[in-house]
Every structure is written in structure tokens, then in C-alpha cells.
Amino acid sequence: MAASDCAVCLETFNDTDCVPARLPCCQRETSTFGVCLGCLEEICNHYTVEAGRVGKCPRCRERLYVSADGVVSKAPQPRGKCRMCCQERVLLDGGKCDACILGSQFALTYECDRCGRHQRIPHPMWRYQTTPGEFGTSTWACHNGCDDYTRWRVIEADLGRVPAHDAPEGWQMLDRWLEQLREERARVARMRPEERRDHGAVFIHRRQGCVVS
Fold it and tell me: Which keywords describe this protein according to UniProt (predicted)?
């Protein structure tokens, strides 16, 4: 039996405010999983690509693209040199890779595994931590005395600032992410019509969306 409710906002699909999105990655005609276009746009508001938005499918984590007119497809993979890290990457917003975009938004404080001191790092080093308490598998230069590339973990005080939509699977933050999306969708639903228009007009310029800040 095909899904009749959105898996994110839990509303019943309809032709007005809960229009089912056609997912090109993991959805089939008889799929019991479905998401509405409004929720998918909220999921995809973390990055922009030209006139559209990019984000991850809440089920299979495939990167999706939502065009300005609401058409959903697998995200393009334009590669080039990131204008921030100068590495050959898949480029998203403004010629920057997703790591540099998130690093700019969430420059968290990390603990060095060698000297134990703290350092603010403008890169999503949480991606390399299997769990919140483990040190990551990738290195970054320690400027606190090690004078070497060391491993890091997010300090406890900043764990709540790790964006739920980007946390590793082992962090088990999927339910938290979906709950944040539901809260945002409910907030938008309470808006007056003119507020919704303003919300839509600036939508692609927002960066943090439904994440813990």
C-alpha cells in the first residue's frame, strides 16, 4: 500500500499544503514511505544550487535537488576547485563544497586527542567521529602546542550545536532531525498568508534551517 501520510510532518497527503513529493531515489509506486514537498524543501534549505535547493533524502540519504518550480531530482554533482579549501570537490553554494559551507556555519570547538586543549575549527570534524564521545579518524592542525596534525572530538558543550541533518549515522540523531523539521513545518503552518509569502521569498537565502544552533 502506498504511503498516505508524510513521514516527516505526519500530515495526510493532499493537493494543497501537503503535496506528496516524487522521490527519484528510494520511492516506488507501492512504497510505504513518503514525504511532502514542503518538508523536502525544508530539508533542502541548507544549500542552494543556482535557483534550487539541495539536501539529503530522509530515508536513504541520497542527495536530492529541488528546483525553483518544485521538481525533485537527484542532485547534480558539479566538480571543481572549492574557492575556500582549494580542494577538488563537489561544489554547491557559491562555488564552495559542503564541508566549507557547514564549517563556516558551525565553527565548533574541539578537543585535541594529544594535548587535550581546545580549539575552534571551521570544518565539520564531527563527520569523522563514529560516536559523539570518540575522537575522529581525520586530522587537523593543532595550534595549541602540538605543532602537528592531530585527531579531534567536539567538546561536550558544543555537541548540541552539531547539525542533526549532517551527524554521522552512529550518533542516532535521525529522530531528532525529523522532530526539528516537524516543528519548523508547524511554525510555517501557523503563519499568516503574507508571512508565508515572505518566508518563501527568502527561503533560499536561509542557511541553518531546522538545525540546532
Answer: Metal-binding, Zinc, Zinc-finger
> What would the pLDDT profile of 130-153 be if each residue is shown by its tens digit?
999 999 999 999 999 899 999 999
Distance CA 202, CA 12 (A): 27
Contact 102, 47 (CB under 8 A): no
**By C-alpha distance, which of 113, 119, 81 is closest to 100?**
81
For 154-204, the pLDDT digits (tens) are: 999 999 999 888 888 899 888 888 888 888 878 877 877 666 555 554 443
Pair 35, 55 in one domain: yes
Note whether 210 and 42 are within 8 A (CB): yes
Q: Please state the pTM of the whole predicted model.
A: 0.71
Task: Please indicate, yes or no, if residue 65 is contained in any of the structural domains.
Answer: yes
Number of domains the chain is built from:
2
* Other C-beta atoms lying within 10 Å of the C-beta of residue 201: 9
The rounded Cα 43 to chain-centroid distance in angstroms is 7
